[in-house]
Amino acid sequence: MHKLPKFSDPNLLVSGEKLDDAGVYKINEQTALVQTLDFFTPMVDDPYIFGQIAAVNALNDIYAMGSVPLTVMNIVCFPSCLDVQILVEILNGGALKIKEAGAVLVGGHSVEDNEPKYGLAVTGLIDPNKIITNAGAKPGDSLILTKPIGTGIISTAIKGKIAGEGSMNNGIQVMTTLNNIAAMAMIDACASACTDVTGFGLLGHALEMAEASGVTLEIFMPLVPLIEGVYDLASMGIIPGGAKRNLKYAEPKVNWYGRVSDIYKDILADPQTAGGLLIAIDNKKGEQLVKDLTGKGVEARIIGQVNKYMGKPLIVEGL
Ligand code: CO
Ligand code: CO
Ligand code: CO
C-alpha cells in the first residue's frame, strides 16, 4: 500500500493509508461519502450462505465508521463451467443481507474466472463531524467486542469436514450477522473509536486502533468470547495460515502478561470473516452499552481497556 501513488485532497477525510475500514470523502459541511469494497472466495459449500457472509463482511465496513449503507453494487467472478444456479443462490444470499441492511442494489459487474468470488462495493453517507475512526480511542475507555471470535478456525474446520454441528452453526450464525444493531447503539452512545474485526484478527485490528490512537490497548484474554468449539479445534492444530502470519506480524508489538498459551495467541490472531465491532467508549458508558446490546441479542462483552501509551501498543493478559 505504501508504494502506491498518494492522493491528497482537502475533502478526503479518511483514506486507505490510515488502515481504516472505509474511505470518507466530504461533499459539503453536512455530508460525506463513506465507501468500501470487499470480495473473496467461498469459505462454505452452501452458495446461499456464502452470498450472505460476503455481503455482511462488506456492509460491516460501513457500520464500523459509524455510517449506514445506502447503495450497493455486486462484484462477481464466476467460472462458465459451473451451474449458473449456484451464482443465482450466491446473489440471492447477498440480496437478503442488503435488504436487511436497508440498502439498495444499484448494479454490479461480473467477469469469468476460474474460481467463484463475490462481494460488494458499498456506499454510505455520514455527517463529517460524526465519523468514528479507529484513531479516537482515549485512555480510560472501555473496550467492547460485539461478536465471539474464531471464524477462521471454524472455516478451516468446515473445509476439512471436521467441524462439529454446533461449531459450524454458531460460526455461520456469527458470519451472517450484520453489525447494524451494534453500530446504531455505538453511534447513539457516542463511542470514541471503532473498527470491525476481520482479516488481521482481534490482535491485528486492536493493534491498528492502538497505533492510530497513540495509546496502549489492554485485552483480558479470559474475557474474550469464543465461538463454540474454537478452543478445542485450535488445540488440535486447526489454525489457518493467516493466523500464524498475523501473529508473527503483531507479536513484537504485544506485551504478554500472566499465562497466555500459544493456543490462545493463535485464536487472538485468527483472521475473522464478517467479525464484530471493536469499540472504545468512555468507561462510564461501557457497561450500559453492553447491557443495551445484550438486550437486543448482540453478544457484546467488555474485553479490556484503553491506557495511555505504555511502551508497546498492546497488552494481553492471561490467567
Ligand atoms: Co473493516
Ligand atoms: Co474491509
Ligand atoms: Co460493468
Give short descriptive properties of this protein:
7-stranded mixed beta sheet, 10 helices, 13 strands, globular, binds cobalt (II) ion
Order of the strands making up the biggest sheet: 8-11-7-12-9-13-10
* Biggest β-sheet strands, sense, barrel: 7 strands, mixed
- Helix count? 10
The total count of strands amounts to: 13
Cofactors and ligands:
cobalt (II) ion
Helical content stands at 25-40%
Average pLDDT score: 95
Q: Any low-confidence stretches, pLDDT <50, length ≥5?
A: none
Give the overall shape. Answer: globular
Our measurement of the CA-to-CA distance between the termini, rounded to an integer number of angstroms, reads 38 Å
One letter per element, helices H and strands E, the order comes to EEEHEHEEEHHHEHEHHEHEHEE
Beta-strand share of residues: 25-35%
**Structural class given helices, strands, pairing?**
alpha+beta
Task: Please tell me how large the radius of gyration is.
Answer: 19 Å
